[in-house]
Design a protein that fits this description.
about 110 residues, alpha+beta
């Protein structure tokens, strides 16, 4: 289980030849939920670009794993190092437990390298 934080930020989601906007409701180092009425097939790779603040973006490669009435649940498979560091910092700010976030970061890096 990974620490999940609330986050109300716009993102673009792309897959195959489709592109749509969505509102990120919550995120962890391993997954996110986006509010959207867009339906997409499950278990397909998607790319998520999340604009956080200023010129900071998170770029995530994920898989759509759950469709709900209000949106999509996605599992994060990979992210670039800058996105990982930035997301880790956001989560650490919210949860106030640096040791827990460090443990989760090591697990996520393990998943990305596997």
């Amino acid at each position: 289980m990974f620490t999940r934080i609330g986050l109300s930020k716009w993102a673009t989601v792309s897959y195959e030849d489709q592109l749509f906007g969505a509102l990120v409701e919550n995120i962890s180092l391993r997954g996110l939920f986006v509010e959207t009425n867009q339906e997409i097939p499950l278990n397909i790779p998607v790319e998520v670009s999340l604009h956080h603040t200023g010129n900071k973006y998170l770029y995530l490669s994920a898989t759509a794993v759950r469709q709900e009435e209000t949106g999509l649940g996605m599992k994060i498979n990979r992210m670039d190092i800058h996105s990982l560091v930035h997301l880790r910092g956001l989560i650490e700010e919210e949860c106030k437990d640096p040791e827990l976030v460090m443990h989760e970061t090591k697990k996520m890096v393990g998943y990305m390298l596997a």
